Amino acid sequence: MTVLADSAPVAQLPAHTVESWQTQLQNAIRDPAELALLLGLDLDALPYSARADDDFELLVPHAFARRMRRGDPRDPLLLQVLPDVQEEALPPGFTIDPVGELSLGSHDSGVLTKYSGRALLIATGQCAVNCRYCFRRHYPYEDGAMSSAERLQRIQALAGDASVKELILSGGDPLLLNDRQIAAVADEVSAAAHMTTLRIHTRLPVVIPERVTSELLAALSRPALQCVVVLHCNHAQEIDAATASAIQRLRAAGITVLNQAVLLAGVNDSPEALADLSDALFAAGALPYYLHLLDKVAGAGHFDVPQTFARQLVGELAGMRPGYLVPRLVVEVAGASSKRELAPLYAGDGRRGD
Questions:
Q1: Taking burial as the number of CB atoms within 10 A of a residue's CB, which of 112, 118, 131, 181 is the most buried?
Q2: Residue 238 near residue 211 (C-beta atoms within 8 A)
Q3: Tell me: the pLDDT tens digits for 183-200?
Q4: pTM tops 0.85
């Protein structure tokens, strides 16, 4: 692997400058040559695929790229975002709809009701970072595109169903909505007496921590409404001081902060990497909640970790950390009534770590 000289320039903001999250999003890296230059790497020596990039374009904020190790082509953050030649392969069992969302027939409305008591709203099709393993990388977001008024109409319709206790905002990344739009959503949910929880699945506090503004916190604060933010962080290296500060601001506002990670070959598929991730999350104020087996989406086969090995990893992790730092290993099965938890495989006498 060819590495450029250490003197290669690295794009970096002056220490005194803090860009708004909107500016950071606008200036995110879309050119693989720019990313390679930032890291002091030779793009021609990387497994970069222009074909994969055309299919699902590179998108990574500078704040996230700066946490990548300079000169390391196997950096765990780089592997998550670089379009790779291995994406051109299609192993058996990998499809464009790995969890069966398109078969639900409701994707054109932007509302998915897979599990009892919960409704999921595809708030936007946009993300702040394009993760190569994303299970919705082929999702037809344009079919369910909606205006702010239409989004509120969808929520009002759900408010008429007393069985829906929790609204889940997903995407894309729902924190790409502006603060006014998010406040309007929170108002609608809190106005429905039977809706007690607003849950937001997001990667933005990790990749652009400045998204957690005082205005956002105010938008999410409503009397009698529980707000849960589920982060998506896969490696301890993703958590820096700015990310930890964002998590702490969420918690200080009374928001529950959990994390779900995806088990990715070459990124976090060792007990040490998982332990480091749990430690970093807990130190920052988030609990490791789920560890997902990879959803078998076309283009992500090279990230797949065999189920038995995954169970062994979590068994080893249970012997290294207390139970509250051991995420539940789960897999999503199309058409199932819930995620399926997979029991860890323990070494020795099989007793679970406590």
A1: 131
A2: no
A3: 999 999 999 989 999 999
A4: yes
